[in-house]
Amino acid sequence: MLARDVMVSPVIPVTKSATDRDVARMMLEKRISAVPVVDNADKVIGIVTESDLLHRVEAGTERRDTCAHHHRIEAGESGGSRN
Q1: What is the per-residue pLDDT for 78?
Q2: Residues 32, 47 contacting (CB under 8 angstroms)
């Protein structure tokens, strides 16, 4: 399989100022699972995938175990030793 077999043309990019909500809406409307992020010169500087949008605190879809871990860190507790 080649990249062209799974990609849409023309490419549908987003800018780095796009919000998570904007990206998610576009991905749903265009029925795509990832978009490149481009700078002002249309140079690719990253990519956003469906999985990047999952389990987000802002969307209320965070994982419970991850959320608990963040709360422990914010409270100053360590979740274990990391050297």
Answers
A1: 46
A2: no
DSSP letter string over 12-79? --EETT--HHHHHHHHHHHT-SEEEEE-TT--EEEEEEHHHHSS-TTTT---HHHHHHHHHHHTT--S
Query: Taking the model in full, what pTM does it have?
Result: 0.61
Within 10 Å of residue 32's Cβ, how many Cβ atoms?
A: 15
- In whole angstroms, give the CA distance from residue 37 to residue 14: 5
Q: Percentage of the chain surpassing pLDDT 70?
A: 65
The rounded distance, in Å, linking the Cα atoms of 71 and 60 is 15
Q: Helix, strand or coil for residue 6? A: coil
The DSSP code for 3 is G
